[in-house]
Amino acid sequence: MRRRLVWLLGGWLVGTATAAWLRRRIRRGVERYTPEHLRREVANRGTDMLSSVRRIAGEVTDATRDGRDEVRRTRHTLDHEYGARRRHRPFRSVG
Question: In whole angstroms, what is the distance from residue 1 CA to residue 61 CA?
C-alpha cells in the first residue's frame, strides 16, 4: 500500500511539475513570436471568457438558491397536506 501511495504521489508531482514547465515554455514561445496586438487580443478574450464563466456560475448559484427556497415552500405545503409520516417512509426497490 505504501508503494502505491509513493508512486501515486510521485507521478502526481512529476505530472504537475512537467505541466508547469511546459506551460511556461509555451507562454515564452508565444510571447516571442506573436505581435503585441495579437497578444493583447488573446488576453482580452481570456478575460472576457473568464468574466462570462463567472457570470454563468453566479446565475447557476442564484437559480439553485431560488430552487431551494421553492423546495422549502413546497415541502411545507406537502407536509401539511400529507402529514409528517409521508417523509419518513423507507424507499423500496422494485425488481
Answer: 40
45, 46, 74 from 86: Cα distances, Å? 52, 51, 14
CB 79 within 8 A of CB 87: yes
Same domain membership, residue 42 and residue 80: yes
The neighbour count for residue 34, using CB atoms within 10 Å, is 13
> Domain containing 26: what range?
1-33
Report the distance separating Cα 29 and Cα 25, nearest Å: 6
Q: Establish if 92 belongs to a structural domain.
A: no
- 46 shares a domain with 27: no
Q: What is the pLDDT along the chain (95 residues), one digit of tens a residue?
A: 889 999 999 999 999 999 999 999 998 888 777 787 777 888 889 899 989 999 999 888 888 887 777 766 666 555 555 555 555 556 666 65
Tally of domains in the chain: 2
For the chain, the maximum distance between any two Cα atoms, rounded to a whole number of angstroms, is: 71
